[in-house]
């Protein structure tokens, strides 16, 4: 495993811990995200909060990017890598482009709304003036299993 791959796994584990908080603390869909600077510092982190905050934009990625923007005092998050447990949707992908995030690493693919290659490929579209490097499938089975268990429990009426 290369140093980059090792760092990707380490940060994805952190994002999975955040995903667990979404489910445990807020009964939200368990998606977590952590935004890391080029030198390895946490700039922002978050988990899904759209139900709790009555905010359709409060996805884990957006929460992490908002926190990072406030911390840096800038809407540009240059050189950063966003680790997220689920492939970003179109809204989150476009926010990453506008923020000039360098790289996104995600866990589970989203075959219904994924915008990093599964359904749409917004991050690589050459019509944008910025493209985000994408690396998917990091701890994808673990992330996917967490989501499957959450939705299975919701359908059965039992806690996950």
UniProtKB/TrEMBL annotation:
CDD domains: nucleoside_deaminase. Its cofactor is Zn(2+). Zn(2+) binds at residues 59, 89, 92. Residues 6-133 form the CMP/dCMP-type deaminase domain. It holds the Pfam family dCMP_cyt_deam_1. It catalyses: adenosine(34) in tRNA + H2O + H(+) = inosine(34) in tRNA + NH4(+). SUPFAM superfamilies: Cytidine deaminase-like (SSF53927). Its EC number is 3.5.4.33. Gene3D superfamilies: Cytidine Deaminase, domain 2 (3.40.140.10). Binds 1 zinc ion per subunit. The active site is at residue 61. GO terms for molecular function: tRNA-specific adenosine-34 deaminase activity. Keywords: Hydrolase, Metal-binding, tRNA processing, Zinc. Catalyzes the deamination of adenosine to inosine at the wobble position 34 of tRNA(Arg2). Belongs to the cytidine and deoxycytidylate deaminase family. ADAT2 subfamily. PANTHER family: CYTOSINE DEAMINASE FAMILY MEMBER, TRNA-SPECIFIC ADENOSINE DEAMINASE. Homodimer. This is tRNA-specific adenosine deaminase.
């Amino acid at each position: 495993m290369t140093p980059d791959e090792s760092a990707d796994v380490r940060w994805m584990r952190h994002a999975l811990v955040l995903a667990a908080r979404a489910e445990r603390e807020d009964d939200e869909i368990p998606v977590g995200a952590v935004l890391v600077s080029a030198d390895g510092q946490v700039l922002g982190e978050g988990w899904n909060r759209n139900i709790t905050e009555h905010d359709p934009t409060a996805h884990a990625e957006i929460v992490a990017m908002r926190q990072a923007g406030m911390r840096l005092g800038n809407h540009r998050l240059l050189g950063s890598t966003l680790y997220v447990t689920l492939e970003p949707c179109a809204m989150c992908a476009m926010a990453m482009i506008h923020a000039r995030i360098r790289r996104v690493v995600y866990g589970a693919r989203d075959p219904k709304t994924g915008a990093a290659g599964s359904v749409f490929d917004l991050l690589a579209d050459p019509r944008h003036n910025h493209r985000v490097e994408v690396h998917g499938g990091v701890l994808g089975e673990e992330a996917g299993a967490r989501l499957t268990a959450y939705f299975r429990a919701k359908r059965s009426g039992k806690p996950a």
